[in-house]
Structure formats: structure tokens, C-alpha cells
Design brief:
One of its GO terms (molecular function) is DNA binding. This is LacI family DNA-binding transcriptional regulator. With 345 residues, the chain is an alpha/beta fold. It contains 15 helices and twelve strands. The chain folds into three domains: 2-68, Orthogonal Bundle (434 Repressor (Amino-terminal Domain)), CATH 1.10.260; 71-173 and 309-335, Response regulator (Rossmann fold, 3-Layer(aba) Sandwich); 176-305, 3-Layer(aba) Sandwich (Rossmann fold), CATH 3.40.50.2300. Helices cover 46% and strands 15% of the residues. Helix 2 (16-23) crosses helix 4 and helix 10 (176-189) runs parallel beside helix 11 (205-220).
Length: 345
């Protein structure tokens, strides 16, 4: 049918693609209208029905069979190993939020981990076969090919975060820059002079934004960021440990640290203890996420709260809307963050 849609009518009979083009929607949307699916907005349904009438389109068996392609399932894809999935509260928060967002629908949620190139290839084949109606993608790196594959497949998708400021795929993100700026500004206001940061992976836009916020706070205070006080890590506890050790070796006079995740802050705290540094007396410490980790550390960790579960619910809501009606404008939501001050700073 796709070839007929590109080349014009075959034998003069209107095609499903021509109806979709006339109505300004996708082929799947026309199929849902034809088959009486409730997952179409009244406005879209009216546009499709008007196009059907104008073209005198008569559905046939193949068109009706398209409805059987619906799987009533969506995939939550996390391209990380199990160790990160179970160690970092961010992922469990997203899963809880997505589950809550889908609770009142008929959609089943499939959790898919992608750990190796072979698994990524297998996932590509799975998605190409349209085994799911949509995809939620978490932990996006700049070079991740999955968002572009989803776009080529015209498969509804929503990202948690984004690859860059020019992201074209629908996404739900938090104000990473503003949150990091608030964290660094708080440390400045506490009178700290040598403020370091343990940044996230350079190929993740969220990490880039948090580093930018740290820099902005220093520049706002009339200070030039010292590159010796910036150490990238990988959002893991071990990464936080290694980065904190490197900072103390490099700049033993450090008196404050902004870690770009609570898990990395936990690793940093362990190293500070090992080196005989008191928190917050000698070194103030702030994390990012305001996860359960922050509340259970000793001392409790000051942290930037991002609404992780609400992000998951918003992702599910946007995906449901995209499945029902692919919007021409890509939905892009940025939720606010808030600094929660505790004893560590």
C-alpha cells in the first residue's frame, strides 16, 4: 500500500494513504477511525471522516486488517545494565511514574534493557516489526541511534531527557540547568570558597546542563570556573568515589562539592570520610535528584529535587496522546526543580 500511496492511485481507487494525506494524519490514525477505535480525538475523527467522504474512500479487508496490528502494549527501553537499573533510584521512580500513568488504560508495559550491541540490534528488529504501539526511552546519550530509528519507523516515542537542545523527538525533562545553578549558588551563599563539581557523563545532555548551571552560578558571583575543580563521572557511586578522590588529590583545599546525582554524592561522602573530612564542617556537599539516597545518608544530603515520578507519568500521558493522534508539533515538557537543603550543606 505504501508504494501505491507514493505513486498515486492504483486503478483509480482512493487509497488509505490519500485519505491520511487529505486529513493531515498518519495512516494508522485513518485505520483506527475506519475500525471504530476510541483512541482518536473527536477533531481528528471528524477530519478523517470528512476526507473519506470527499475522496469517496471505501474501506476494504486489507485496511480493516490494519487494526489488528495494534498490540495494546508499549515498551520502556532502558539502555543500561541491571546494576544501574537496581542501584539508582532514578530508574525505579520513572518506572513507578510510567506505571501510574498507564494504570487507567488497556496498555501493557514491557520493560526492555539494552546492554550489548547484539541486544540493541535485536531491539531494532523487534521495533521494526511494530511489536509495540509506542516506546518510552530512558537514559539517552548523544550518540544513541534509537530515537532516530523510532522516527524513521514512525513509531510514537517519548524520551526521558533529550540528546541535545535541538531534540526533535517528543520528550519530558527537568530544569537541569536551573537546579544546578541553585545548588552552586547555595554553596556560595554559605560562604564556601573552593567549590568543585562531580559532573555526569559528557555525552549526556542532562549532565551538560547541570555543569552549565554550576558554571553560571560561579560566573553570576563574579568567579571564573576553575577547570581543576571539575571532574566528570558516570552517575554511579563508584564514579563518585573516583571523582572525589581525584578532586582531593588535585585540590586538597576544596570546601564544597556539587555532585550531579545523589548516587555520586554518596560515593563522594564515603571518600571524604576516608580522608578525614567532616561534612559539612570541612566540606559541604549537595547532590541532584532528591532520591531516597539523599534522605538516608548521614548527614542527610542537600539535593536538587526533580519530580521523577511526575516525569514518568507525563511521559506516559504524552505517549498515549501520540498513539491516539500523532501531533505535528513535537510535545516537549520541562518540569521545574527545587533545592532541598539538609544537614550536608
Amino acid at each position: 500500500m505504501a508504494a501505491a500511496g507514493r505513486g498515486g492511485r492504483r486503478g483509480g481507487r482512493p487509497t488509505l494513504e490519500e485519505v491520511a494525506a487529505r486529513a493531515g494524519v498518519g495512516r494508522g490514525t485513518v485505520s483506527r477511525v475506519v475500525n471504530g477505535s476510541p483512541r482518536v480525538s473527536p477533531r481528528t475523527r471528524a477530519a478523517v471522516e470528512r476526507a473519506i467522504a470527499e475522496l469517496q474512500y471505501v474501506p476494504h479487508g486489507a485496511a480493516r486488517a490494519l487494526a489488528a496490528d495494534r498490540t495494546d502494549s508499549v515498551a520502556l527501553v532502558i539502555p543500561e545494565p541491571e546494576t544501574r537499573l537496581f542501584a539508582e533510584p532514578y530508574f525505579s521512580g520513572i518506572i513507578r511514574g510510567v506505571g501510574a500513568g498507564l494504570a487507567d488504560t488497556d496498555l501493557q508495559l514491557l520493560l526492555i534493557l539494552v546492554r550489548t550491541p547484539k541486544e540493541r540490534e535485536r531491539l531494532g528488529q523487534y521495533l521494526s516489526a511494530h511489536r509495540v504501539d509506542g516506546v518510552l526511552l530512558v537514559s539517552v546519550h548523544a550518540d544513541d541511534p534509537l530515537p532516530d530509528l523510532l522516527s524513521r519507523l514512525e513509531l510514537p516515542a517519548v524520551l526521558s531527557g533529550r540528546r541535545s537542545a535541538r531534540e526533535t523527538v517528543p520528550y519530558v525533562d527537568s530544569d537541569n540547568t536551573g537546579g544546578a545553578r541553585a545548588a552552586a549558588r547555595h554553596l556560595l551563599e554559605r560562604g564556601r570558597r573552593t567549590i568543585a563539581t562531580i559532573a555526569g557523563p559528557p555525552d549526556m545532555y542532562a549532565a551538560q546542563c547541570r555543569l552549565a548551571g554550576y558554571r553560571q552560578a560561579l560566573e553570576d558571583a563574579g568567579r571564573d570556573p576553575d577547570e581543576a575543580l571539575i571532574v566528570p563521572a558516570d552517575f554511579t557511586e563508584d564514579g563518585g568515589r573516583r571523582a572525589m578522590a581525584a578532586l582531593l588529590d588535585r585540590r586538597p583545599d576544596v570546601d564544597a562539592v556539587f555532585a550531579a546525582s545523589d548516587v555520586m554524592a554518596a560515593g563522594a561522602l564515603a571518600v571524604l570520610r576516608e580522608r578525614g573530612r567532616r561534612v559539612p564542617e570541612d566540606v559541604a556537599l549537595v547532590g541532584f535528584d532528591d532520591s531516597v539516597v539523599a534522605r538516608h545518608l548521614d548527614p542527610p544530603l542537600s539535593s536538587v529535587r526533580q519530580p521523577i515520578e511526575e516525569m514518568g507519568r507525563a511521559m506516559a500521558r504524552v505517549l498515549i496522546e501520540e498513539i491516539a493522534e500523532r501531533s505535528r508539533e513535537r510535545p516537549q515538557l520541562v518540569l521545574p526543580t527545587e533545592l532541598v537543603v539538609r544537614e550536608s550543606s
